[in-house]
Write a structure and sequence with these properties.
about 200 residues; alpha+beta; Chalcone isomerase; two-stranded antiparallel sheet; 7 helices
Amino acid sequence: MNLSFASRLFARWSAIALFAAACALPAQALELAGVNIEPTAKVAGKELKLNGAGIRTRVIVKVYTMALYLPEKKDTPAAVFDSQGPRRFAITMLREVTGEDFGQAFMAGITANTDKAERSKFVNQLGQFGEVFVNVGKMGKGEVLTCDWIPGSGMVMAVNGKQVGEVLPDIAFYNAVLKIWLGEKPVDTSLKPALLGQSKG
């Protein structure tokens, strides 16, 4: 075999091997404001991919990080809302917020991004959703709120891994909650593109 040809062949296969090894490496966690955002999450037995993550900032104060997990990555709100299978969004607090303030902010976000007719369809779930934050009392720095959509069951909320509140069965309500950040009037205009994987937030 020609030595030059053999060298080129070796170099080519070495490059392929290195690329394959790199692809085999696990995805690394993203760090935002000192919070590790995991690249995957398991919900209802299915591994979900990190769609995007960012920081909720109010004026200049960093309030929480948020990560959105889906079965497949989506880059538009409509595609997220239409996503099939389980989903998760996870919020990690960067400062302490009372449950009442947190709940009121969420309710305001839902109201801003849905109309009265839409809200009338899940008024009971809206009330149960608000009660969760009243009952939680406060969310301290470092505490984690997860909201999972589990097909065939509903929306399951947990604080630090412990379920809070009732299971809320309507996918339309889960999407209404997501509209707080992904709707036409998002609570934070920089967080919306971050959750869609368009920036790091």
